What we know:
- It is a single chain.
- It is built from twelve helices and no strands.
- The chain has a single domain (about 80-320), classed as MetI-like (MetI-like fold, Orthogonal Bundle), CATH 1.10.3720.
- The protein is mainly alpha-helical.
- The chain starts with 10 loop residues before the first helix and ends with a helix.
Amino acid sequence: MEPAKLDHAALPRVAAVASEARATLWGRARRFLAKSAAPFGYISPTLILVSVLMLIPIAMVVSYSFKDNVIVQQNPVSVGLANYTKVLTDPDFLAALKNTFVFITASTVAHLVLGLGFAMMLNTSLLSGVTKTIFRIIYILPWLFTVAVIAVIWRLMLDPAGVVNYLLTTAGGMQEGVNWLSDPGTALWALTFINIWAGFPFFMISILAGLQGISGDLYEAASVDGASPFRQFWNVTLPQLRPVLISMAVLDLIWTSQQFALIWMTTGGGPLNVTEMLSTYTYKQAFSSYEFATASASAVIVLLLTMILAFFYVRLQRER
């Protein structure tokens, strides 16, 4: 057989087909890339904002924590873990850690108990609609006040010449007024009480929403089985509210551990460091002692503790 002869006239057509195929493939690739990149284009402003306001400052603070006293010195040098050792062995930091643990634990437990109690009261059928509305308005008021207003109100009320001491002395509970926020024996508990009072309405509203989402058929079935009101609460209400209660508890631990404004405007961490928290300790290290390196190390430690709580919160949400 004779070998096939090359048709030179067909070469331009072959080249054109190949070029068209390459153009088609390239067009498809561009469309695919554009389609894939479109979501990132939409969220790019948020990513840029988060990077500028969060990621970059966090990275800078972490880098500061491994150097000597930054910002106030022109050429700081690396000191390794010396700042972390200094912070973790500082008696003031250990006292702040202890106070923070007491503060957030007592606040979270009280928020859950009070929020559940008031939510159940507002959800009961024993009260009329008008009465529930009035109570809701009254109970939600603490949540509407700003931190500055709350601090001023309670500093006046807890003053030796304030309303609280007047009522207690009039009722015969004490002989003379007490400066609740300046007495080392009462300052931490008074501050915790203020935080509880200011935060429980949010728990009340959240738990009330959870209560109203529980099906009445469950209570009817429990009543038919002869369950008492307590057994209904224990076997129906609490299991149905468990996801809400756990989520709210973890969130409150995170929020309360970062509380600063209320503490600073009421006690400032005093007296004698009995109300010193991790937030106020870090602030004083940076802006009172100008020890920005140790303040950065303290901030990183607080960040790690908060990230642990955030991890459990995200895990609970994914399980739900």
